[in-house]
Amino acid sequence: MVVLGRRTQAPKPLSRSQIVDDDSDSASDSEYGDVSCEECGSGDSPAELLLCDGCNCNRGYHLFCLRPILVHVPKGKWFGPCCSKNKKPKSFPLHQTKISDFFRIKRSADSLQKINQDNRKRRRRASSLVMSKKKRRLLPFSPTEDHTRRMQQMASLATALTATGTKFSNELTYRPRLAPRSANCAALEQGGMQVLSKEDIETLNLCKSMMDRGECPPLMVVFDPQEGFTVEADKFIRDLTIITEYAGDVDYLKNRENDDGDSMMTLLSAANPSKSLVICPDKHGNIARFVNGINNHTPDGRKKQNLKCVRYDVNGESRVLLIANRDIPKGERLYYDYNGYENEYPTEHFV
Questions:
Q1: Greater confidence, 131 or 105?
Q2: Alpha-carbon gap, residue 305 to 116, rounded angstroms
Q3: Is the dihedral of CA 109, 143, 1, 252 positive or negative?
Q4: Of 48, 61, 81, 305, which sits with the fewest C-beta atoms within 10 Å of its C-beta?
Q5: E strands within the chain?
Q6: What is the pTM of this model?
Q7: Which range among 60-69, 136-145, 169-178, 229-238 shows the weakest confidence by mean pLDDT?
Q8: Mean pLDDT of the 55-83 span
Q9: What residues does 232 pair with on adjacent strands?
Q10: What is the CATH number of domain 96-336?
Q11: Residue 68: is the preceding peptide bond cis (ω within 30°)?
């Protein structure tokens, strides 16, 4: 996951140079004018050169030279690789009770019987899709059958959520003093929004119920020194499979214009900008926030895309789904285009 990334048309937050008082500008320029990046050795692009706030440090790093990349200047103090403990995150305990509590999984004899029934329905539906793809386009994910492996997959997500201070939520959440649920009206979308069919809504609900029972998507969250947290397929995933819904707190875009929120996603792009909404997964979220974006400025970057991000009208409300746009083999990392809609996200330095 690219740190401090945003996937919305909100303007960039103020840089430190814009926040500093005017009286200190000249002194700051003379004191740090000869700072160069510790990674590339260049002093070019000074607007994107961060100074470490470590004690008596002030070493410089370009935003785009850091790994993981920083897309925007962070608020508050920032410590570079020279002063931070860049250690691998502590793994979440591979303990069924702790994992069940973390994801609020409810299992009973009835639920186990329901799982078996849904598995049989899923197999019958999959066989019919070959003959009627136009009638039913989207597929439910197919969980890993091995229980121990599913626990490992969920523990990997719990590790990433814990390391980023995020509480698990698989739904859009509406919090006091943020946007109310009544504000999420798909009819306000500028240019209209694709309506999710009744059958595809059933598929989405099936995915939700499987997750509620502990049958997670076959995905593993891994930590990469270059990309940060990222997601890879843990078994073969078919084209048009629903990977996950983008979840988090819903707020008005106007309230987040200068927010360094991690990985904000546009939920509603209204003709009236004051009614536009974003999903903010920094406090509540799911695996979607750890799926990386492609560098859509290069052919090689575009070739990595194996998911598409789509906003749907679901019973009158806007929802954001990540869907496989081709077959994905086991072990392949998941990527989608952060600029699928607004073309505002700076991806030119993505790995």
A1: 105
A2: 33
A3: negative
A4: 81
A5: 6-7, 49-51, 60-62, 167-168, 172-173, 194-195, 219-224, 228-233, 242-245, 248-252, 264-268, 277-280, 284-285, 292-293, 307-314, 317-324, 335-336
A6: 0.74
A7: 60-69
A8: 75
A9: 220, 333
A10: 2.170.270.10
A11: yes
The position carrying tokens 């707190």 is: 249
- According to DSSP, the residues that pair with 278 across neighbouring strands are 251, 266
In this predicted structure, the answer to whether residue 26 has a pLDDT above a threshold of 50 is: no
Any idea where the domains of the chain sit in the sequence?
Answer: 96-336
Sign of the CA dihedral with 68 first, then 70, 71, and 74 last = positive
Q: Which amino acid is at 101?
A: D
What integer pLDDT is reported at residue 261 of this predicted model? 59
Distance CA 262, CA 285 (A): 11
Dihedral (CA of 190, 321, 10, 36) sign: negative
Q: What is the pLDDT of residue 121?
A: 52
Rounded-to-integer distance, Cα 306 and Cα 138, Å = 15
